[in-house]
Design a protein that fits this description.
This protein is of the alpha/beta class and 375 residues long. It has two domains: 3-216, Spore Coat Polysaccharide Biosynthesis Protein SpsA, Chain A (Alpha-Beta Complex); 218-374, 2-C-methyl-D-erythritol 2,4-cyclodiphosphate synthase (60s Ribosomal Protein L30, Chain: A), CATH 3.30.1330.50. 31% of the residues lie in helices and 30% in strands. The strands form five sheets. Strands 1, 4, 5, 6, 7, 10, 11 and 12 form an eight-stranded mixed β-sheet that branches. A five-stranded mixed β-sheet has the order 16-13-19-17-18. A two-stranded antiparallel sheet has the order 2-3. Helix 3 crosses helix 5 (160-169), helix 5 crosses helix 6 (177-183) and helix 8 packs parallel to helix 10. The protein is elongated, with a radius of gyration of 26 Å. Residues 75, 98, 152-154, 175-176, 199 line the site of the ligand C[C@](O)(CO)[C@H](O)COP(=O)(O)O. Residues 220-375 are annotated as: 2-C-methyl-D-erythritol 2,4-cyclodiphosphate synthase. Its cofactor is a divalent metal cation. Its EC number is 2.7.7.60, 4.6.1.12. The record marks 146, 199 as: Positions MEP for the nucleophilic attack. Keywords: Isoprene biosynthesis, Lyase, Metal-binding, Multifunctional enzyme, Nucleotidyltransferase, Transferase.
């Protein structure tokens, strides 16, 4: 059994308003669209994820590391393109999901996948609990029995060959993929939906999604501190940038004191020890190593545990060299290594007013803080 996911993201989000389509707006530390893509990509039972995007967004979405195809004029057209892109990959079950539902949970996915063992289709939904009225011009002029009525969600799951064939032959638009499946004679089971798995549709839904993140998120703060002594030399490496100086920094690796503090801050937030634990100084293979190896390892470890690095703040403590003229290049270098936006990285410096070992220019110290977020 191979399960894949098609995430439709080619809509323009006209009802949600804003300068960019809703899936590209910020929500906490990420974009709206990144949440459900991450949830499905990290799900142990999902082998392939295809994101269907508008042609104008293709380069941007690919830049996020997603596997993408372009969508069509309607949601159903986009679904068809996503399903066709999975042909030949041995997919047996497929989950079709709206990118605009960032609150998707593993439990919702698990229930849909499990139900596909006994049904051709399965989709999450919530029973309607409020009374239903029929109204016109602001006046109630009838009621509608709510028994047996459900609010449909995604991901809607199907046997892959059956839903591909159903979509290929469905000659008209449809509210969702369950409608297409049923029109082809497939039975669709109802699985448990989640109030958190709502679709961002209108402007006020962003505030609801933000509240949801605040209650469910795991926020970690870590700090790092490092010191390297000066020795003979003509430059130092600070936060990935070569800075000319009258001395060099002494160390087993390239002695990038700033990058070491940031790396330790990330390990600290993860409760994963420090650089020395992952890259022992007794191990000769790290002699003279570029410190970006250590930083990348810490970032990858955070990612593998489901965390996003929200920001890092690093202070270099030295009389000389002057850091200010190089700070922008340092933030640029760290941004490239860590894969996070430059405006989430701060590099600054202070002297110690000629006090202590930094004041006597015997070495450079650095402190750093990192915030990690898991939703
Ligand atoms: N041509 C389209 C239209 C919609 N969708 C996707 O279908 C999902 C559900 O649609 P909806 O909430 O209606 O999104 P939009 O079409 O973007 O919103 P609006 O109708 O307000 O423009 C969204 O993930 C949307 O990106 C799509 O992939 N291709
Ligand atoms: C598929 C769907 O999310 C099920 O609730 C919904 O029908 C798609 O959203 P739209 O607003 O109808 O485009």
């Amino acid at each position: 059994m191979t399960t894949a996911a098609v995430i439709v993201a080619a809509g323009r989000g006209t009802r949600a308003g804003g300068d960019v389509p809703k899936q590209w707006r910020s929500l906490g530390a990420r974009l709206v669209g990144e949440y459900s893509v991450a949830t499905l990509t990290n799900h142990p039972d999902v082998a392939h994820v295809v994101v269907v995007v508008h042609p104008d967004d293709l380069a941007f979405a690919q830049g996020l590391g997603w596997t993408c195809v372009t969508g069509g004029a309607s949601r159903r057209d986009s679904v068809v393109n996503g399903l066709e892109a999975l042909a030949g990959k041995g997919v047996t079950k497929v989950l079709i999901h709206d990118i605009a539902r960032p609150g998707l949970t593993d439990q919702v996915i698990d229930d849909v996948i499990a139900a596909l063992d006994t049904h051709q289709g399965a989709a999450p939904a919530l029973p309607v609990v409020d009374a239903l009225w029929i109204g016109a011009d602001g006046i109630v002029n009838g009621t509608q029995a709510r028994d047996g009525l459900y609010r449909a969600q995604t991901p809607q799951g199907f046997h892959y060959d059956a839903i591909l064939s159903a979509h290929r032959t469905h000659g008209q638009d449809a509210a969702d993929d369950v409608e297409v499946a049923r029109a082809a004679g497939m039975t669709v089971a109802i699985t448990a939906g989640s109030e958190d798995n709502f679709k961002i549709t209108h402007p006020q839904d962003f505030a609801r999604a933000a509240r949801l993140l605040e209650t469910g998120m795991d926020i970690r703060l870590g700090n790092g501190y490092d010191v390297h002594a000066f020795e003979e030399g003509d430059h130092v490496i600070l936060c990935g940038v070569k800075v000319p100086h009258t001395k060099a920094l002494k160390g087993h690796s390239d002695a990038d004191v700033g990058m070491h503090a940031i790396t330790d801050a990330i390990y600290g937030a993860l409760a994963e020890g420090d650089i020395g634990r992952h890259f022992p100084p007794s191990d000769m293979q790290w002699k003279g190593a570029a410190s970006e190896i250590f930083l990348k390892h810490a970032v990858d470890l955070a990612t593998s545990k489901g965390f996003t690095i929200s920001n890092v703040d690093c202070t270099l403590i030295c009389e000389r060299p002057k850091v200010g003229p190089h700070a922008d290049a340092m933030m640029e270098a760290l941004s490239a290594i860590m894969g996070i936006a430059k405006d989430r990285i701060s590099v600054k410096a202070t002297t110690s007013e000629r006090l202590g070992f930094t004041g006597r220019e015997e070495g450079i110290a650095s402190i750093a803080t990192a915030t990690l977020v898991k939703l």
